[in-house]
Design goal:
The chain is of the alpha+beta class and 289 residues long. The chain folds into three domains: 63 residues, no CATH class; 74 residues; 71 residues, Ribonuclease H-like superfamily/Ribonuclease H (Nucleotidyltransferase, domain 5, 2-Layer Sandwich), CATH 3.30.420. Helices cover 37% and strands 14% of the residues. The strands form three sheets. Strands 5-6-7 form a three-stranded antiparallel beta sheet, covered by helices on one side. A hairpin with a 4-residue loop joins strand 2 and strand 3. Helix 4 crosses helix 7 and helix 5 runs antiparallel to helix 6. The chain is globular. The N terminus is likely disordered.
Length: 289
């Protein structure tokens, strides 16, 4: 089918070549009427063809990132647009940059240059330097999607195979749907038999159990393995929560770090569960064991 062939081509996604065929317009009307194909959901009672296309999207998402030109199509916090390894996403703490936090808000269109003061104000020093070193087009053309599966930046089935292979090998069910995998993860979390806070309180009050604070310190994981440290916090007045993740190797070197703001004032247990979830998926994205 034409849409299934073209969905593997990032250039087709950007140039909207998919809209030229009747079958593509039918799929768009049914499965992703209000977004592009990369933001599509599986939907209810999907056809076999659409399910196959949808499962291939994860490979495409893992192998592409945005190339900044005018920045109007790129979300600062959610999209992959930095020329950095691993996630290609911003890891600086999210800040209020306005109602539409697009990369274009960081660009001075009159002089075709980054807003240096704004970038340095809202991003960590090393990330601000990375952003300011991204060259901008003089004509500020539309942002483009580039393929990261090979050094040439040109999509090929062979390069897509190598992008997909580690992901498929780690999948126990043979499908590439992160949503399904994340659902299974959360089901396992909620099925854990953990003592409630009331049990601890009763043990302290009625059984005269002393609550001791053990010495806390970072312990290195075994050689050739990685350790994920996470934490979460809430800001009740703002109605938001936040989580942070740091992944270190056995020598204590930081392999990756990430933070995320959650729209919701969750209690401590739920916030930390979100932090664990974020840590697991960062490790999966980095293909760490």
């Amino acid at each position: 089918m034409e849409i299934e062939h073209n969905v593997w081509d990032p250039k087709s996604i950007l140039n909207n070549n998919l809209q030229s065929s009747l079958i593509a317009r039918i799929y768009k009307a049914k499965y992703f009427p209000y977004c592009d194909i990369l933001g599509a959901k599986l939907g209810c009672n999907p056809s076999y063809a659409w399910r196959s296309i949808y499962n291939s999207l994860e490979v495409i998402k893992r192998g592409i990132r945005w190339r900044v030109r005018n920045g109007k199509m790129i979300h600062i916090w959610e999209d992959k647009w930095l020329p950095t390894p691993i996630t290609h996403k911003v890891c600086s703490p999210q800040q209020d940059i306005g109602d539409f936090p697009m990369v274009s808000s960081l660009i001075n269109e009159e002089i075709r240059h980054w807003k240096v003061d704004k970038v340095k104000r809202h991003f960590l020093p090393f990330e601000a330097e990375t952003i300011l070193n991204i060259p901008l087009s003089y004509n500020l053309l539309e942002d483009s999607i580039i393929w990261m599966g090979n050094k040439q930046g040109v999509f090929s089935v062979k390069s897509a195979y190598y992008v997909a292979l580690p992901f498929v090998e780690k999948s126990k069910v043979g499908e590439c749907s992160i949503g399904d995998s994340r659902t299974r993860l959360w089901k396992k979390v909620w099925q854990l038999q953990l003592p409630a806070k009331e049990d601890y309180k009763n043990a302290i009050v009625y059984n005269h159990v002393k609550q001791q604070s053990p010495d806390v310190g970072w312990a290195a994981p075994p050689p050739k393995t990685y350790k994920i440290n996470v934490d979460g916090a809430t800001a009740g007045a703002l109605g938001k929560s936040s989580v942070g993740v740091v992944i270190q190797d056995s020598g204590g070197m930081v392999e990756a770090a990430a933070c995320k703001v959650l729209n919701g004032d969750y209690d401590a247990a739920v916030t930390k569960a979100f932090a664990v979830d974020e840590g697991i998926w960062l490790a999966k994205e980095m293909e760490l064991h």
